[in-house]
């Protein structure tokens, strides 16, 4: 019997650990079973069209940027919210905290009334319970005696509807941009 050198054993151990790590880390969230086709060739086609999966060219290229980061511009709800209230001055914006607060806004018609909006993100998913929107009104008289109140009503509902509609459009545009038709022969036998 031949004795395998220590260095060769270490090499094979590292290779085996690498394969195990690759297999374990490639298992992600399976998603909604209703949206996943049961046939393997259709699943492969769907995953490749959506840009998911493992390819060797990506694995060996090496990432020289130092990592992938998700910025606020990649979050559809965040972008849609900022676009919807872009006419208002912002007081506080915290992407990691998930909140946008505007400053008091007064239009040219009602100079004694101001409005302030707070948008809190409860999830990144585009759905009606993803946003907590609060609208505050301030009414002042001539001697700067002001009264502030929070109201919920048509403005909150309209803001939420407009933000969700824009976010859905942004998400669709991103999906269309990432979609690549699969032209391979996945799962076909010769």
List the defining traits of the structure above.
alpha+beta; 190 residues; 5 strands; 18% strand; 5 helices; elongated; five-stranded antiparallel beta sheet; Alpha-D-Glucose-1,6-Bisphosphate, Chain A, domain 4
Characterization of this structure:
It contains five helices and five strands. The protein has about 190 residues and is α+β, with helices and mostly antiparallel strands. It has a domain of about 100 residues: 2-Layer Sandwich (Alpha-D-Glucose-1,6-Bisphosphate, Chain A, domain 4). Strand 1 and strand 2 form a beta hairpin. Helix 4 crosses helix 5.
Short description:
The protein is 37% helix and 18% strand.
Distance between the termini: 42 Å
Element-by-element helix/strand order: HHHHEEEEEH
How many whole angstroms does the radius of gyration measure?
A: 26 Å
Topology-level CATH name of the domain at 73-175: Alpha-D-Glucose-1,6-Bisphosphate, Chain A, domain 4
Find the structural class using helix and strand composition.
alpha+beta
Q: Fraction of residues in helices?
A: 25-40%
Side by side, the strands of the main sheet go 1-2-3-4-5
Parts with pLDDT < 50 across at least 5 consecutive residues: 66-70
* Oligomeric nature of the chains: single chain
CATH class of the domain at 73-175: Alpha Beta
| Number of H/I helices | 5
Chain-averaged pLDDT = 78
Largest sheet: 5 strands, antiparallel
- The portion of residues forming beta strands comes to 15-25%
The appropriate CATH architecture of the domain at 73-175 is 2-Layer Sandwich
Indicate the overall shape.
Answer: elongated
């Amino acid at each position: 019997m031949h004795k395998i050198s220590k260095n060769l054993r270490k090499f094979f151990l590292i290779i085996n650990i690498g394969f195990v790590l690759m297999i374990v880390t490639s298992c992600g969230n399976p998603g909604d079973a209703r949206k996943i086709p049961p046939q393997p060739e259709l699943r492969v086609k769907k995953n490749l069209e959506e840009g998911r999966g493992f390819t060797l060219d990506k694995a060996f290229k090496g990432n020289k940027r130092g990592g992938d980061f998700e910025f606020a511009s990649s979050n559809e709800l965040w972008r849609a919210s900022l676009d919807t209230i872009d006419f208002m001055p912002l007081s506080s914006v915290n992407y990691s905290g998930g909140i946008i607060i505007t400053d008091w806004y007064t239009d040219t018609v009602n100079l004694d009334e101001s409005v302030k909006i707070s948008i809190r993100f409860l999830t990144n998913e585009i759905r009606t319970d993803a946003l907590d929107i609060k609208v505050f009104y301030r009414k002042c008289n001539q001697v700067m005696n002001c009264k502030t109140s929070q109201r919920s009503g048509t403005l909150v509902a309209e803001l939420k509807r407009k933000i969700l509609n824009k976010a859905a459009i942004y998400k669709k545009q991103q999906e269309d941009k990432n979609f690549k038709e699969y032209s391979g022969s996945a799962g076909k036998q010769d």
